[in-house]
Every structure is written in C-alpha cells, then in structure tokens.
Amino acid sequence: MTSVYFKGIPTEPDLQKLLDKYPHTEMKAGQIIYYDDVETILNTDKKSARFWTITTKWRNTLQSKFGFIVDTVSGEGFKILSEKEKVGFGGRKLKSAGNMAKKAYHVFSVTDVMQLDDPSKSEYNSAVRRTVAILHSQKLKPRIAPPTLAETAV
User: Fold this and answer.
1) I want to staple 31 with a disulfide (CB 3.0 to 4.6 A). Which of 80, 82, 93, 97 is the partner?
2) How far is the C-alpha of 89 from the C-alpha of 101, rounded, in Å?
C-alpha cells in the first residue's frame, strides 16, 4: 500500500537539477545565472512561488555547503558574489536587521503589558531584551574586535 504525500511537489529533484547544471566547482565570482535559463531548467515561471522556493533552497545550499553567496540582479538573474561584494551584502543584511529591531521595539512600546497573561508577559520580556541587545549592538563597540587584516595575513 502506498502512502499519501500531502506536502506538495518535492523540491529535491529540481534542486538537484540546478546543482547539476551549475556545479559549485565551476562557479566564479561575478557570474550571472539568468532567470530565463533557470526557468527553462525548472520548467517553471519565475513569477511562481515554486520558482522562488526552489531557487531559495538552491542559494541556501550553495551558501551552507560551499560558501557561495548568491544575490539577485533585478530583472536579470542570480549573481555569484565576490569577497568584496559579500562584505557589502552582509552590511545591508545587518542594516536591515537593525531596522527590523527598531520596528519591533516600536511595537513593544505600544503594547499594554497589563493586558497580557503570564506566558505572554514572559515572551514579551524576552523579546524586548533581545531587541534592545540588537539595537545596542549597532551603537556600541563589540567586546571582541574582529581580526585586523594584519592578523589574518598568512
């Protein structure tokens, strides 16, 4: 007897198609992988949720297993970032995290804590502490400085 699969169409086969077509050993910084090519490989429109589900998984795989950061180029495709571009990309992500923390802090500031039950108060306190820590981290020097270029030179 076969079991019923309720989680949609599996993404692994399509992920493998991308990994096979664009092997990590052949990727170069600055390389652009065009949306049209990926659409053809996946037989899926770039405007579909499936396209973005698969390509997000592909990008995450390239990052976690091989250290490639893949950004998007509006209207064109995916770009393999150079080391210099990774720094800018990381900086933009950090700024975005700070902006989200500011928004979260505002939400907490207009929350009437007196109306919360005990589990919600605990969650509120924990979230406020984490948010404040993120906001402070953007204004204060870190306790441990990152290594200088001289320290990383071989």
Assistant:
1) 80
2) 19
What global pTM score does this model have? 0.70
Domain residue ranges of the chain, discontinuous segments joined by +: 12-81, 84-142
Q: What are the tens digits of pLDDT across the range 13-49?
A: 999 999 999 999 999 999 999 999 999 999 999 999 9
Picking from 81, 76, 82, 80, the residue whose alpha carbon sits closest to that of residue 34 is 76
CA dihedral for 142, 144, 150, 154, sign (positive or negative): negative
The SS3 call for residue 112 is coil
Q: pLDDT digit string (tens) for 139-148? A: 755 455 555 5
d(CA 56, CA 63): 11
Using the structure block, give the residue that is written with the tokens 């949609």.
8
The CATH number that domain 12-81 falls under is 1.10.10
- Phi first, then psi, for residue 78 (nearest 5°) are -105, 140
E strand residue ranges, 47-154: 70-73, 77-80
